[in-house]
């Protein structure tokens, strides 16, 4: 009786489609960021700041652009399915919300006291939730500003939204900075708590499936 | 050019043995309003485009040569000091100007501009300034 | 040695000056020291410096090239022939405009306007060459538009001259052909799609801010289209060809995307 219930009533913490999308997204992000640095260098936004050759994907701007405008398809298509998956399966609602202010304060306080609680992989703390929400928004923003920069005449409405072509470039640059900042924290924490990294590869612990309302009624 | 792309170096300084004026004359000097130069940012002609300062005014020396007074150095515009850079050592790069014939090290030794013996050119006067393409 | 001359997407089709190689020994050593961890990608940097035939793996190069060709198709679909680029007030015009080319400013070779002729070829009925006086007699249009460079910078410019679409119709060009190719005095071949050539904001510009174009900006005649990146605007045009045969331009041969619409 019990085994039957477990088999039907649990699933992996990170289902296979999600893991595939996560790692595809990791590849897409790294391609977009490093090729973006190669493109940036031809006309810097912050005087004096440019990215070293070793950090760039593409030996010069044309090659970086080829990578960037190929990587965008992977980022957009994969990102679209990720959003669709998160919304349809309820994963976003279940894992990322609500984000309580009190939780947030408590987690920051704990972290400052070097208490990084990651005993329960199946639940995100408030800071994690906020970081994931911010990076998803940054990713969407990168696509929107990217479209504005790629097609500033065809999508001239988008360009004016960002206060002009250079405004769109600046927001695109800042979006990159947010994502890189996220990546640093995200990768550092996953290395500190390697179980999380393994979970994203192998699926993680089994957790109960979210109970549907229909079932509650019966 | 492609071979050089991606390398950080100044591309348009006067070739060895050529005077500033002669080099400037080969950079296809274009007419520009002095008033349109004032407040322009001045960059170093290398790939990372560091900001050297901002144009304060344009002056004429007693011998007729024209200098661009640049608020040089400092941090975010603070603690900058004015220096007079020969216009022939500078170029237009779109909405920016660049100093192509002096390195920042040389510019640091320029004496602070005090205006003595010079005449400030009014905003509507037209001078000619050479061109450059982006450095990278 | 022959391989040095082979045209590749990722390196210049030029033989490196040995002095250049010497001048960058330390950098090349640095790249070597890194153990080429980034595979072919870092090799590209060395390639660009020295012009040697060390390059991105062919399969990667071919895949990137294929996506770029796919992007040409997508861009042609995104291009709305009726959509006008934003225009701006004269007070925003940058004077003089920004110079850029594949050569240095000191290497600009001015064109003699008196002997200059515009040659026509391909799918065009009236192929008689045009003089500058004849071009000047054509009805003109002026536009104040944003120039956007593939490098990321932009400025607002004021260009005038006969619209290319009007000119093509006047000389009996086959406007159902796919491409309009340009050949220039500065050896910068370029090609655009017919839809862009017929766009109302695509001019054969002869003046900037009311003044005759200066040599570095493409005297006596250059293309100025509001719907493509700056490098798709060849300067000092000497010949126009209407054709169905694709011809990559100067930068496309070196890896930039052909359509490059904005």
Task: Kindly describe this structure.
The complex is a heterotrimer of chains A (218), B (136) and C (262). Chain A is mainly alpha-helical and 218 residues long. Chain A has helices spanning 2-9, 16-40, 61-88, 91-96, 101-112, 126-150, 156-161, 165-192, 194-202, 213-217, and strands at residues 10-12, 206-208. In chain A, 70% of the residues lie in helices and 3% in strands. A two-stranded antiparallel ribbon of chain A has the order 1-2. Chain A is globular, with a radius of gyration of 20 Å. The two termini of chain A are 19 Å apart. Chain B is mainly beta. Chain C has 2 domains: 2-56, no CATH class; 78-254, Sulfite Oxidase, Chain A, domain 2. Classes of the chains: A mainly alpha (218), B mainly beta (136), C alpha+beta (262). Chains in contact: A-B, A-C, B-C. Chains A and C meet through helix 3 and helix 8 of A and helix 3 and helix 4 of C.
Mean pLDDT of chain B: 89
Strand pairing plus helix content of chain C: what structural class?
A: alpha+beta
User: How would the global form of chain B be characterised?
Assistant: globular
User: Number of domains in the coordinates of chain B?
Assistant: 1
Instruction: Determine the strand fraction of chain B and express it as a percent band.
Output: 35-45%
Number of helices of chain B: 3
Share of helical residues of chain C: 10-25%
Helix content of chain B: 10-25%
Number of helices of chain C: 7
